[in-house]
Write a structure and sequence with these properties.
Length: 796
């Protein structure tokens, strides 16, 4: 706060110094020999700096005199420039409506450079004569109002020839504005210098207008395509509307670029843009710091500005041009209250409040300079105004940028929170869906092993197929969620690719045979060595591609072809293709099918089922490994899905891929006879499923319904292994396992969980568990794991 105040005070001191210098510079040039109707510049060097023609000019009220060598007697000699309302002759003030002529003789110094006059706008039209020739006009000053035309233009008039005397006559007429007469000084000086000065002034205004307008459009775009922040909208509208003030007032650049625009249009826009822009600024301040502002005070300021704007629309210029003084009261009220709001915002540590306070100081100084200039106390301060405007809008843009960044940060935090909630929800749903599925699949496997009747077997197989489909859908949704969350990790372990593929074919062969589809496999004989990769993810990709091919093929074949494209001693590049003779995919739908929850046709899901996630998962898994899933397809003839992937080779001397070693002992042999297993599970149905299988394999089973009970009854001399559920009342599996390890128990503990392994794997390992079996479990997986950890059959 202290630093901001110091900066503001420095700006104030700087502005005061500049204004004092301007007041000094605004005084008439010294020793120019000014007399009534005469400006003597013979001792002035016009090549270095232009000189104002301020002085006592001959004044002809209600007369538009004809320029000539002899002029009639004037009404009076009065100071030039000066508004008629401020001009007094013999105790009488002149009205703002009327017409008049001004005349002056200028004695020039000897000069070789080309001279020019800088002729400013007047209220509200003028015509300039120099040495009897008309050189410039703005509108049409006339003694009859109907013939007169208003116009505001600044002209730089070249004075051709080497004359040493200028006889200037200026006609001025006003029938439209609340003010009448000249109010800006006329300059004489070097032509090139004056043109350059004019062009620089125009350039400043054009650049500033462009900055404000484009900045307003930028923030308007952020509002439209962002979070629809109303503060951003009102700031954009403020910048856009106020940009007209820069180009449509002061030097009237717009009038010079488009001289045919009617004056009535431009004057309405000039005042309307001023009142409306301040309205938007008030609304912007209100939306910026709602908690720190009083809506009733700001509401009153808004209605005051809107009332002034309404008067501009419904009244003629002679009326609404008198509103500038009431507006100044409103405007300084806006600035003053903005100070109060921004100070409160700073105290409450709002976003960008310090920049808002500093910008208010800048805009206050800008308007002070503008008003001092407007009332004639200082000369135009183009550089100060330009720097002030740029500083103000830059600081306001910083506020908007910080606000936008803050909104993005909040949106990110909300998205992360929502993502965490979604992941937690999916994890919970995974557990809740997998738990009953474990019962369904387990009981189905048990009944199928009890030699059911033929019709019962068919019904059970349908039940098993449907339950596996439901499990696959759940797995797909969870897998895609993990991929999108960036939580997929890939293993790099030795894998026997042909063995993996043959196992996949064994699992898919039944589905193919049910549809009378020929399931074919071709492995390039050049693939002779084990490779390093992630067998789980590769199996997932191939299972999805092969499963899709079987699903969408009614007759013919499905071929998995693995070709060696390149290889050396360190790596092998494989092209893996899945070809089918199915329904095919239309060209315009071939990219669509890789999107999540999407299939080529809405009827596809009705006819063939599925979530539309399989190909999206395959595509993302391959992309994360640096590969691309490609497609070639012809509707009605079939499709080819393929990808190319490079695998490092397993470097082992004279060792090629060997077939799997000894087969597991048959279940009927009861290999677990004499083994006691502690089953920790709270679901009665899951207890029945697991105990049935374990007892079928010869094991004795003790049951614990929660972790605390397991701690009480576990006996390392009796129990060969503990099968531990994770989610249980009283004490969960994590704490129970941790406490068992703290007691020094070293017997194998295997997690039985319905959560995905990659979600809980690290936590399970930290507790001291040996392995994980996912529910719903395939009996063969549980069988193999239990045999391994009881030492009956090593699977290493």
């Amino acid at each position: 706060m202290k630093g901001i105040t110091t900066i503001w005070l420095r700006l104030l001191v700087f502005t005061v110094i500049c204004c004092q210098a301007s007041v000094i510079n605004a005084q008439p040039p010294g020793k120019t020999g000014m007399q009534d109707g005469l400006v003597d510049l013979r001792n002035t060097d016009l090549s270095r700096q232009p000189v104002s023609l301020n002085g006592n000019w001959a004044f002809y009220w209600k007369r538009l005199i004809v320029p000539g060598d002899s002029l009639p007697s004037p009404t009076a000699f009065i100071p030039f420039p000066k508004l008629w309302r401020n001009t007094t002759v013999n105790g009488k003030k002149f009205p703002d409506i009327g017409y008049a002529s001004y005349a002056v003789t200028v004695l020039l110094p000897p000069h070789t450079n080309q001279l020019a006059l800088q002729v400013p706008d007047t209220y509200t039209s003028y015509r300039l004569f120099v040495n009897g020739k008309e050189l410039a006009e703005a509108g049409n000053p006339d003694s009859i109002a109907k013939r007169a035309v208003p116009k505001w233009l600044n002209r730089t008039v070249e004075l051709k020839g080497t004359t040493d005397t200028l006889r200037i006559v200026l006609h001025v007429a006003n029938y439209w504005h609340s003010k009448g007469g000249p109010y800006k000084e006329m300059l004489v000086g070097d032509f090139d210098y004056l043109v350059q000065k004019r062009d620089i002034g125009f350039a400043f205004d054009l650049v500033l207008t462009g900055c404000l307008f484009m900045g307003g459009l930028f923030f308007f775009g952020l509002f439209l395509f962002g979070r629809h922040d109303k503060a951003m909208l009102y700031f954009a509208l403020f910048a856009i509307t106020y940009s007209y003030r820069i180009i449509g007032a002061r030097l009237y650049v717009l009038h010079s670029i488009f001289p045919d625009i009617p004056w009535s249009v431009t004057v309405h826009l000039e005042y309307l843009s001023l009142f409306v822009s301040v309205t938007f600024f008030v609304l912007y301040t209100r939306m910026l710091y709602k908690e720190d502002s009083n809506k009733y005070i700001l509401g009153a300021l808004v209605w005051a500005c809107l009332g002034l704007a309404a008067l501009v629309i419904v009244s003629p210029p002679a009326v609404f041009t008198q509103l500038i003084n009431p507006f100044l009261v409103v405007m300084f009220g806006v600035i003053a209250y903005a100070f109060v709001i921004y100070i409160k915002a700073m105290r409450n540590k709002r976003v960008g409040a310090s920049y808002a306070l500093l910008s208010s100081g800048v805009v206050f100084l800008v308007f002070v300079v503008i008003n001092l200039q407007y009332f004639g106390f200082v000369q135009p301060q183009q550089g100060i105004l330009f720097a002030g405007y740029i500083s103000f809008f830059f600081l306001q843009s910083l506020i908007m940028s910080f606000r936008f960044a803050h909104a993005l940060k909040q949106a990110k935090q909300q998205a992360e929170k929502a993502l965490g909630a979604k992941n937690e929800f999916l994890s919970t749903m995974s557990h809740e869906i997998r738990t009953p599925l474990n019962s369904i699949l387990g009981m189905t496997h048990i009944i199928l092993r009890d030699n059911p009747r033929k019709e019962q077997k068919e019904q059970l197989e349908v039940l098993l197929f449907s339950a596996n489909n439901l499990l696959a859908i759940v797995n797909d949704i969870l897998d895609y969620n993990k991929i999108e969350a960036g939580k997929v990790n890939f293993e790099a372990i030795d894998m026997d690719l042909p063995a993996i593929v043959r196992n996949l074919f064994s699992g898919l062969r039944i589905a193919a045979e049910e549809k009378n589809i020929d399931l074919r496999l071709h492995i390039d004989p050049l693939l002779k060595q084990a490779v390093i990769g992630d067998p789980t993810r590769l199996s997932q990709v191939l299972t999805n591609l092969l499963g899709n091919a079987i699903k969408f093929t009614k007759q013919g074949y499905v071929l998995l072809d693995i070709q060696v494209k390149e290889q050396n001693d360190q790596a092998v590049t494989l092209k893996i293709k899945v070809t089918d003779t199915g329904i095919g995919i239309a060209p315009d739908k071939q990219q669509l099918i890789f999107e999540q929850f999407t299939q080529a046709d809405t009827s596809t899901s009705r006819n063939f089922g599925g979530t539309g996630l399989g190909l999206a998962i395959c595509k993302r898994l391959l992309e994360l490994q640096g590969s691309q899933l490609q497609l070639q397809s012809t509707p009605g003839k079939g499709s080819v899905f393929y990808f190319t992937q490079t695998f490092p080779k397993v470097i082992k001397s004279n060792q090629s891929m060997a077939p799997a070693s000894n087969e597991l002992p048959p279940e009927e042999s009861k290999p677990l006879s004499g083994k006691c297993i502690l089953l920790v599970e709270d679901s009665e149905v899951n207890i029945i499923v697991a105990r049935t299988f374990l007892e079928r394999w010869g094991a004795e089973v003790d049951i614990a319904l929660h972790g605390q009970e397991a701690l009480d009854i576990v006996d390392p001399d009796k129990h060969a292994i503990v099968l531990m559920d994770m989610h249980m009342p009283v004490m969960d599996g994590y704490n129970a396992t941790r406490m068992m390890r703290q007691k020094g128990l070293t017997l194998p503990i295997v997690a039985l969980t319905a959560s995905l392994p990659r979600d809980v794997e690290e936590r399970i390992r930290e507790t001291g568990m040996n392995d994980i079996v996912i529910k719903p479990f395939v009996p063969e997986d549980l069988y193999k794991t239990v045999l391994h950890y009881t030492g009956v059959f090593r699977t290493d």
